């Protein structure tokens, strides 16, 4: 090597940080972030519409479209970035290098989770500002409405990104589609059930933290813990799949 | 094939001992034992023979179902230290299209453990050496096949590995790029690197080395200096497909040559069947330069190689697909 000295083996976290940086650069130049921002205009437009039409605007009316947005943006960023890596076989460049495999998934999530959280939290804050102007006179929204809404969006970004990222590792060919199907067909109906099984749903806990739903027992804090547990489960599943994966379909 | 002898002193660059790889019920590679100490070694076989599987086992992307692979004495799938000494150029052409060539190779250099300023400098050096000085700041999205091959080779060399694993590095590149890539690979070998290069075209491998391992249906058929194989292949007409802007012009330039058997035209391409591939490749390069024909890609369908291997195995084939 002309500059003297040899390359050395990176620690897993250093490799993950590096991959996060390069992933951010790629996302910035790609279409998905702009598409996510375009989707974010939906709840904001809805908030303006509600304020213009309704006499007394309630936060609940504005938060429901935010929950929907939370089901769209994180998979758009996480599942597509991770699925593309496997679908395009560019993982071969990464895994033939001296990196632990887990650093690929963690590195990508380190880039996509904050981005998804930023899009969702900013959208929630804008919706709050717009909606507050239509609150009933003499009956302003509770002081914790905005912090709860933002916290719900941040937690949703984390849990849904991890779930959709792991789904993309398991099914790279249709990662984004399967992630949406999971959220729409399984998670959302599960969250709407009036039984304790609803606690397995990400949508349910996001609604509880954001104040859209009143928990039968427990609180917003308990829901945050549940979301961390669900996110951890999905991450563990994704890492397990990655560790034993050989992606043999393209191997020959 | 002989089992590798356990060498004294420094461990061999590659040591495969009784390696088999199954994909479910399909056998990819069967009982391969192979020892590589240095130099350039060609891995020859038709598509689906098991070349890529062998290479992926060597770089640690796949683990053998049975047997053992060691690179410099360590198991590549488990040892980052072993992978640090490997440069791998896969067969597919996909890169990170959003990045420029310099960014992409810098990214790969950093992931190979080079600190950021050094990584950038080494990436620039590697790309310039591969003839991409003018394309450093261009997004790889717009790269031709030949430019992508060169960029892939640059990422493979950027961290100065001791072992290069090159999966079909000459596929689809034009004659000029081909000559440059061959020279760069030879240069790396002269610099003390061990190079394993695969191809389904004997003439590509021959340009690099005479040390060849022939693999077919997951099994090693022959190893060493194989003039016999070459003679057999020469008996079968060899097809060369050239994609270019004026295929008829190129066809006219080749017509009348005694080694050319047939010339067929396809949309944007000419397919030449020849009895003497070496002379034909030389003549194609001459005509391209003389008549300023723009070549987009040159490939050699491997039908003839498959026929020769079927002949070699007496139509038995191997266990694999």
How large is the share of residues in beta strands of chain B? 25-35%
| Gyration radius of chain A, rounded | 20 Å
Helix content of chain A: over 70%
| Helix-strand makeup class of chain B | alpha/beta
Q: Tell me, rounded to a whole number, the average pLDDT of chain A.
A: 89
The fraction of residues assigned to DSSP E strands of chain A is: under 5%
| Distance, first to last CA of chain B | 20 Å
Pair of chains with the largest interface and how many residues each contributes: A-B, 34 and 43 residues
- Number of separate helices of chain B: 11
Largest sheet of chain A: none
Provide the low-confidence segments of chain B as ranges. Answer: 1-7, 317-321
Q: How many individual β-strands of chain A?
A: 0
Order of helices and strands of chain A: HHHHHHHHH
Helix and strand run of chain B: EEEHEHEHHHEHEHEEHEHEEHEH
Q: Quick one: how many beta strands of chain B?
A: 13
**Helix- and strand-based class of chain A?**
mainly alpha
- Major β-sheet annotation of chain B: 6 strands, mixed
Write the layout of secondary structure elements.
The complex is a heterodimer of chains A (252) and B (321).
Chain A: H1 12-29, H2 32-53, H3 59-87, H4 91-95, H5 102-132, H6 145-170, H7 175-192, H8 202-210, H9 220-243
Helix pairs in contact in A: 1-5, 2-3, 2-5, 3-5, 3-6, 3-7, 3-8, 5-6, 6-7, 6-8, 6-9, 7-8, 8-9
Chain B: E1 14-23, E2 26-36, E3 40-44, H1 51-59, E4 66-71, H2 80-84, E5 86-89, H3 101-111, H4 116-129, H5 145-157, E6 163-167, H6 175-190, E7 194-199, H7 202-206, E8 211-216, E9 219-225, H8 227-235, E10 238-244, H9 247-254, E11 260-266, E12 269-274, H10 277-290, E13 295-299, H11 303-312
Parallel strand pairs in B: 3-7, 3-8, 5-6, 6-7
Antiparallel strand pairs in B: 1-2, 1-4, 8-9, 10-12, 10-13, 11-12
Helix pairs in contact in B: 3-4, 3-5, 4-5
Describe this structure in words.
- The complex is a heterodimer of chains A (252) and B (321).
- Chain A is mostly helical and 252 residues long.
- Chain A has one domain.
- Chain A contains 9 helices and no strands.
- In chain A, helix 3 runs antiparallel to helix 7 and helix 6 packs antiparallel against helix 8.
- With 321 residues, chain B is of the alpha/beta class.
- Chain B contains 11 helices and 13 strands.
- Chain B has a 6-stranded mixed beta sheet with strand order 5-6-7-3-8-9, with helices on both faces. Chain B has a 4-stranded antiparallel beta sheet with strand order 11-12-10-13, with helices on one face.
- In chain B, helix 3 crosses helix 4.
- The longest helix of chain B has 16 residues.
- Chain B is globular, with a radius of gyration of 20 Å.
- The N terminus and C terminus of chain B are likely disordered.
- At the A-B interface, helix 1 and helix 4 of A face helix 1, helix 2, helix 3 and helix 4 of B.
């Amino acid at each position: 090597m002309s500059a003297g000295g040899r390359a050395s083996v990176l620690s897993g976290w250093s490799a993950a940080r590096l991959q996060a940086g390069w992933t951010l650069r790629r996302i910035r130049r790609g279409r998905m972030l702009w598409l996510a921002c375009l989707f974010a205009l939906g709840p904001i437009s809805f908030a303006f519409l509600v304020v213009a039409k309704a006499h007394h605007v309630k936060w609940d009316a504005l938060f429901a479209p935010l929950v929907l947005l939370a089901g769209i943006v994180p998979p758009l960023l996480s599942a597509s970035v991770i699925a593309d890596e496997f679908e395009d076989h560019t993982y071969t460049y990464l895994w033939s290098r001296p990196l632990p495999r887990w650093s690929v998934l963690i590195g990508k999530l380190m880039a996509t989770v904050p981005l998804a959280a930023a899009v969702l939290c900013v959208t929630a804050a804008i919706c709050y500002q717009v909606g507050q102007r239509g609150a009933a006179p003499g009956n302003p929204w509770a002081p914790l409405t905005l912090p709860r809404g933002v916290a719900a969006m941040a937690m949703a970004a984390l849990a849904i990104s991890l779930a959709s990222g792991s789904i993309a590792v398991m099914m790279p060919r249709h990662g984004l589609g399967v992630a949406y199907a999971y959220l729409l067909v399984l998670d959302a109906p599960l969250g709407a059930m009036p039984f304790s099984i609803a606690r397995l749903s990400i949508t349910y806990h996001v609604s509880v933290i954001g104040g859209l739903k009143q928990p039968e027992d427990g609180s917003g804090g308990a829901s945050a813990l549940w979301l961390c547990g669900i996110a951890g489960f999905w991450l563990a599943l994704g890492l397990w799949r990655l560790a034993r994966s050989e992606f043999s379909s393209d191997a020959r | 094939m002989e089992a590798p002898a356990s060498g004294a002193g420094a461990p061999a660059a590659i040591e495969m001992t009784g390696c088999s790889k199954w994909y479910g019920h399909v056998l990819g590679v069967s009982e391969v034992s192979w020892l590589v100490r240095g130099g350039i070694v060609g891995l020859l076989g038709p598509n689906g023979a098991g070349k890529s599987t062998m290479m992926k086992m060597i770089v640690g992307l796949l683990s053998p179902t049975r047997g053992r692979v060691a690179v410099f004495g360590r198991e590549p799938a488990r040892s980052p230290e072993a992978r640090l000494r490997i440069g791998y150029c896969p067969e597919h052409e996909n890169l990170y299209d959003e990045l420029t060539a310099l960014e992409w190779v810098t990214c790969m250099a950093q992931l190979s453990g080079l600190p950021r300023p050094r990584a950038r400098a080494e990436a620039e050096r590697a790309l310039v050496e591969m003839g991409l000085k003018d394309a450093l700041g261009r997004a790889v999205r717009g790269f031709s096949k030949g430019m992508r091959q060169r960029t892939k080779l640059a990422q493979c060399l950027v961290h100065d590995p001791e072992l290069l694993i090159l999966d079909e590095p000459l596929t689809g590149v034009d004659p000029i790029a081909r000559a440059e890539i061959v020279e760069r690979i030879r240069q790396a070998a002269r610099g003390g690197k061990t190079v394993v290069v695969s191809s389904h075209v004997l003439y590509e491998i021959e340009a690099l080395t005479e040390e060849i391992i022939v693999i077919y249906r997951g099994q090693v058929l022959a190893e060493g200096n194989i003039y016999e194989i070459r003679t057999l292949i020469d008996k079968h007409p060899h097809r060369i497909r050239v994609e270019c802007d004026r295929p008829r012009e190129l066809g006219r330039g080749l017509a009348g040559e005694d080694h050319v058997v047939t010339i067929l035209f396809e949309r944007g391409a000419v397919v030449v069947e020849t009895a003497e591939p070496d002379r034909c490749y030389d003549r194609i390069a001459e005509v391209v330069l003389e008549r300023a024909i723009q070549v987009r890609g040159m490939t050699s369908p491997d039908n003839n190689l498959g026929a020769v291997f079927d002949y070699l195995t007496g139509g038995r084939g191997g266990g694999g697909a």
